[in-house]
Write a structure and sequence with these properties.
- With about 110 residues, the protein is mainly alpha-helical.
- It has two domains: about 1-45, no CATH class; about 45-113.
- The protein has four helices and three strands, in the order αβββααα.
- The protein has helices spanning about 1-20, 45-60, 65-80, 85-110; strands at about 30-35, 35-40, 40-45.
- Helix 2 packs across helix 4 (about 85-110) and helix 3 (about 65-80) packs antiparallel against helix 4 (about 85-110).
- The model has no long low-confidence stretch (mean pLDDT about 85).
Length: about 110
């Protein structure tokens, strides 16, 4: 009976992963190779790179980015300290801060293209 439960749980998990999670490939992200910058399998032109730099710089300096960053930090701290009845809330709050940091680093890298 235990083996049947595991099989059913595995099938359900496989179904959910296949149908609910969006899989990303290397073509979906901005990639730097020794041949240049690529996005969606296409090498970026100098104009494309310039536009990305400008957009990243504007976003990083924008009031919108500042508001989003503060909001995420507030919610993360709330998770970690106010609602930390469980270990999961603290871990989730730290993950929110980690992701915010990653997004900031991404914007910084783009502005230095």
């Amino acid at each position: 009976m235990e083996g049947l439960k595991r099989k059913i749980a595995r099938k359900i998990t496989q179904y959910l992963v296949r149908n609910l999670l969006v899989a990303l490939t290397e073509d979906d992200i901005l990639t730097l190779t020794n041949k240049g910058w690529y996005l969606r399998g296409r090498k970026l032109s100098p104009e494309d790179i310039g536009q990305l730099k400008d957009e990243a710089s504007m976003l990083k300096k924008s009031v919108l980015w500042e508001l989003m960053s503060h909001d995420i930090r507030f919610l993360a701290n709330d998770r970690m300290f106010e609602k930390s009845a469980t270990e999961g809330n603290s871990v989730f709050g730290r993950a929110m801060l980690y992701n915010l940091n990653l997004m900031g680093q991404f914007l910084d890298r783009i502005t230095k293209l």
